[in-house]
């Protein structure tokens, strides 16, 4: 063995690339065969079983009532998510506040709405009219106070509406789903806020920023990276859970409309398949959106991005100013 | 505007009224930092066990000591990031975190504490720059959000400060694109942007690669020469000797030895100081 001369500058040498026989994977070929057979059986079922009624299904899955139901499903999803996210942030911030009253209240909120199943919650919301036939804003204990002053049946009310007007399907559905969603979003936002380095809050505090400023300007923007991906999942779950709105009941909703056609025409199964196809389509769109959102918000945090940053950092160290975003 | 800020009109030295209200009127100039018998415990662990420190205006006070001696905790008490259990700390004659009325002590509201912190800059070991903002945004964040300065003004001043720490050309870089030394200098500029009258440094060079320490120390020396009052927790003995007006050696929650840095470093009297210096020098 020769010891290389260390005083000379090392010169890169050529080397022959490795030519090796790759590892065989016979198990994969077996799996391919099994899956191919199962797939063929499934296609055979779809094509030959007359119960699918493909023609009938395609004729009926784009009718105006279904399209109205589609619009309802999409708008309820969007509205419930917006309210749920905003309320969830409020609850999460309250949960992490120094104020024991806010902490306790927000804990109770998440406890209640996470414990009650959405379907049950929606049924209850739809039946709240039993509790209060009329909703009124006025002086509390007015009849009792009236009795003290010798008045019978004192009704000091500013205004009121019958709950049947208020509890019409659409908004009860939105509210029920949003209230439930807020409890889950609060947990997600809380986890996101806790994932931010406490040094960040400390630096903001040391600069004299108030707690609200530190939250809004420093902690929440950084928590977004952790909050966004599960929020995408929540949106997908919400879209699917709109099919529970039959419990309220809400009729301007996709699944209700499709199964209504099925029930009316006694062609139940084709319309169920239509529902599956619609949900597959809608969720696929959301998945594409989620992919891009995640890509954007995990900027600079993946393994590859970290390596890239390190390189840029090195370049910065040597005076080069890398391209700015 | 807060009460503290209103009391302190432009010229600090011409404010005898404030001094008179202070329960501990001092002869001559009020020191920038005065700590009396400060105690602090985390659970059962007593971290500070009676610290007395006085830092006159314009002085650089270097705090040395082994890890776990309470140096950083003491520093964090000065801007009330930690609540002290006993004793008193005054910054520029104002009691930190409390208000004394007669013989009763009132906790200050968060807002008032935040107002006190605005006047005290702090630099952290791990920089703690805001990673979602570029260097310039980091520097102008507090002046615009807290002090309500216009963005144009804040940006001009921010660029001056970045220039002062030698990073004007990195103004638009994000922290992840900067080296540790550059990040720490941005953090110094960020603290200076609030025009503090006191700067606290919590081991500012401990997380840096050795070849990057010099730039940060240079920025701090420059700041010391400009007359800033500084309290610096560090392991940089050279910096202590060269820049420090006063050296404090802490061990196990008490000040073991203090005095002029050259003197303490050359002739440590206490065996624990001697032991520590023999290990780090």
From TrEMBL, chain A:
This is ABC transporter permease. It is a multi-pass membrane protein. Keywords: Amino-acid transport, Cell membrane, Membrane, Transmembrane, Transmembrane helix, Transport. Belongs to the binding-protein-dependent transport system permease family. It comes from the Bacteria. It is found in: Cell membrane. Gene3D superfamilies: MetI-like. GO terms for molecular function: transmembrane transporter activity. The keyword Transmembrane applies. The chain crosses the membrane at residues 29-47, 67-94, 115-135, 166-186, 244-262, 268-293. Residues 70-289 form the ABC transmembrane type-1 domain. It comes from Catellatospora methionotrophica.
UniProtKB/TrEMBL annotation, chain B:
Keywords: ATP-binding, Nucleotide-binding, Transport. Its EC number is 7.4.2.1. It comes from the Bacteria. The keyword Acetylation does not apply. The keyword Ubl conjugation does not apply. This is ABC-type polar-amino-acid transporter. Residues 33-277 form the ABC transporter domain. One of its GO terms (molecular function) is ATP binding. CDD domains: ABC_HisP_GlnQ (cd03262). Pfam families: ABC_tran (PF00005). SMART domains: AAA (SM00382). Gene3D superfamilies: P-loop containing nucleotide triphosphate hydrolases. It catalyses: a polar amino acid(out) + ATP + H2O = a polar amino acid(in) + ADP + phosphate + H(+). Belongs to the ABC transporter superfamily.
């Amino acid at each position: 063995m020769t010891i290389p001369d260390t005083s000379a500058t090392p010169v890169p040498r050529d080397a022959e690339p490795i030519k090796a026989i790759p590892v065989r994977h016979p198990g994969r070929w077996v799996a391919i065969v099994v899956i191919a057979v199962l797939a063929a059986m499934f296609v055979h079922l779809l094509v030959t079983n007359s119960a699918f009624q493909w023609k009938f299904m395609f004729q009926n899955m784009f009718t105006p009532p279904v399209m109205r139901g589609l619009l309802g499903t999409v708008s309820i999803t969007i509205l419930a998510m917006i309210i749920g996210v905003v309320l969830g942030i409020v609850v999460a911030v309250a949960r992490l506040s120094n104020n024991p009253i806010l902490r306790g209240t927000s804990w109770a909120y998440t406890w209640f709405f996470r414990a009650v199943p959405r379907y049950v919650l929606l049924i209850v919301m739809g039946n709240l009219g039993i509790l209060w036939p009329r909703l009124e804003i006025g002086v509390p204990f007015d009849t009792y106070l009236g009795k003290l002053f010798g008045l019978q049946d004192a009704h000091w009310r500013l205004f009121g509406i019958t709950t049947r007007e208020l509890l019409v399907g659409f908004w009860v559905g939105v509210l029920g789903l949003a209230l439930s969603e807020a409890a889950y979003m609060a947990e997600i936002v809380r986890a996101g806020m806790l994932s931010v380095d406490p040094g960040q809050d400390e630096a903001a505090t040391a600069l004299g920023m108030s707690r609200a400023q530190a939250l809004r300007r420093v902690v929440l923007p950084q928590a977004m990276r952790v909050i966004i991906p599960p929020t995408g999942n929540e949106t997908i779950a919400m879209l699917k859970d709109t099919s529970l709105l039959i419990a309220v009941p809400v009729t301007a909703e996709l699944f209700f409309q499709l199964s209504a056609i099925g029930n009316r025409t006694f062609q139940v199964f084709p319309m169920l398949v239509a529902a599956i196809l619609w949900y597959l389509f809608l969720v696929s769109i959301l998945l594409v959106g989620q992919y891009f959102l995640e890509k954007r918000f995990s900027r600079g945090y993946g393994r590859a991005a970290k390596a890239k940053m390190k390189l840029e950092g090195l370049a910065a160290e040597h005076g080069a100013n890398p391209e700015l975003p | 505007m807060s009460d503290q800020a209103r009391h302190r009109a432009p010229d600090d030295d011409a404010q005898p009224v404030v001094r008179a209200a202070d329960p501990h009127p001092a002869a001559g100039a009020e020191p920038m930092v005065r700590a009396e018998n400060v105690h602090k415990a985390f659970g059962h662990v007593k971290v500070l066990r009676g610290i007395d420190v006085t830092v006159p205006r314009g002085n650089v006070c270097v705090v040395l000591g082994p890890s776990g001696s309470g140096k950083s905790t003491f520093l964090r008490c000065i801007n009330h990031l930690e609540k002290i259990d006993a004793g008193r700390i005054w910054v520029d004659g104002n009691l930190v975190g409390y208000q004394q009325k007669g013989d009763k002590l009132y906790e200050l509201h968060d807002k008032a504490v935040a107002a006190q912190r605005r006047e005290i800059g702090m630099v952290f070991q791990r920089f703690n720059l805001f990673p979602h903002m570029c260097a310039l945004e980091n520097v102008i964040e507090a002046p615009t959000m807290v002090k309500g300065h216009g963005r144009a003004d804040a940006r001009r001043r921010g660029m001056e400060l970045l220039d002062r720490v030698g990073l004007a050309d990195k103004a638009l870089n994000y922290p992840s694109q900067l080296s540790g030394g550059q990040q720490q200098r941005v953090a110094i500029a960020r603290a200076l942007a609030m025009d503090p009258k006191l700067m606290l440094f919590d081991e500012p060079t401990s997380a840096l690669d050795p070849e990057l320490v010099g730039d940060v120390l240079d920025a701090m020396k420059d700041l010391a020469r400009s007359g800033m009052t500084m309290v610096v927790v560090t392991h940089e003995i050279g910096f202590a000797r060269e820049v420090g007006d006063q050296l404090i050696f802490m061990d196990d929650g008490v000040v073991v030895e203090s005095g002029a840095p050259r003197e303490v470093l050359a002739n440590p009297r206490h065996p624990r100081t001697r032991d520590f210096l023999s290990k780090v020098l």
